[in-house]
Write a structure and sequence with these properties.
Elements (H helix, E strand, L loop, with lengths): L7 H10 L2 E5 L8 H11 L3 E5 L7 E2 L2 E2 L13 E4 L6 H9 L7 E4 L6 H9 L3 E3 L4 H8 L2
Parallel strand pairs: 1-2, 1-5, 5-6, 6-7
Antiparallel strand pairs: 3-4
Organism: Sinorhizobium kostiense
Protein name: CoA-binding protein
Length: about 140
């Protein structure tokens, strides 16, 4: 996949087929982009599971926070990444160690690592980087 430009149909299909999202780097702080994007995704009907080891035992938008992806008991369709680009390779390794792989890894704005993306794609996972579903959803779906 060319990660410099995504066809609209590729992004729209991901957004339409995704039901459950693990949001890595979720923040309880209303001023943080992850907080606002999580609220948007919940309003659009997605099931969103916040992942943040520093917030375990709390909730974000009334959703219980888990420490890591392996703590999620249900299948997830997408991992939405609000971490630095440097964290993406280790996160891809964590994802590939899961018993059930997600269909998509979505790196938020500025989150891009082509080598990590290639590793995930080799395992059959679709990858989107340097994009925000809260921007793409209104543009492509309405």
């Amino acid at each position: 996949m060319n990660h410099d430009a995504y066809p609209d149909h590729y992004l729209a299909e991901i957004l339409r087929e995704t039901k459950t999202i693990a949001l890595v780097g979720a923040s309880p702080k209303p001023e943080r982009p992850s907080h606002r994007v999580m609220a948007f995704l919940l309003r659009k009907g997605y099931r969103v599971i916040p992942v943040n080891p520093g917030q375990v035992g709390r909730t974000i938008h009334d959703q219980p926070v888990v420490a890591r992806l392996a703590d999620i008991a249900e299948p997830i369709d997408m991992v939405d990444v609000f971490r630095s680009p440097a964290a993406l390779p280790a996160l891809v390794d964590e994802i590939l160690a899961l018993p059930r792989l997600p269909k998509v890894i979505w790196g938020q704005l500025s989150v891009r690592d082509d080598k990590a993306a290639a590793k995930a794609e080799a395992a059959g996972i679709k990858v989107v980087m340097d994009r925000c579903p809260a921007i793409e959803y209104p543009r492509l779906i309405g």
